[in-house]
Amino acid sequence: MFAVALAAAAAMYAADAKAGKAQYDTSCKSCHGPDGTPVAAVAKMRKVEMKISSRRKSSP
Ligand code: HEC
Question: For residue 52, what pLDDT is reported?
């Protein structure tokens, strides 16, 4: 019984992750890259350091 609920929850979270990825792909990927690696041209154009990348690099 518990295992069934757990499996259902896991399936729900998988669906969430899929929806989130779809959203990311349409809304964020153009600047933040397909895997979160910032698109260098965007950072340059906006004259900012895209901190996500530096943060990602500093943490394992
Ligand atoms: C038009 C390009 C563009 C799009 C589209 C975009 N971003 Fe960004 N994002 C940037 C830039 C540039 C920065 C860095 C801003 C700065 O450092 O002042 C940034 C910063 C961020 C930060 C802050 C990082 C930090 O460590 O401070 C987060 C979080 C973020 N974006 C998430 C998202 C999400 C989620 C989406 C999609 C819903 C998205 N961005 C879409 C350009 C974009």
Answer: 57
Residue 12 backbone phi and psi in degrees, to 5? -60, -45
Separation CA 36–CA 44 (nearest Å): 16
Domain that holds residue 42: 2-58
Residue with CA nearest ligand 1 atom 42:
31
The alpha carbon of 23 and the centre of ligand 1 are apart by a number of angstroms equal to 14
| Index of the ligand 1 atom closest to the CA of residue 23 | 38
Q: For residue range 2-52, what is the model confidence (pLDDT) as tens digits?
A: 777 778 888 888 888 899 899 989 998 888 888 877 777 777 777 777 665
The total number of structural domains in the chain stands at 1
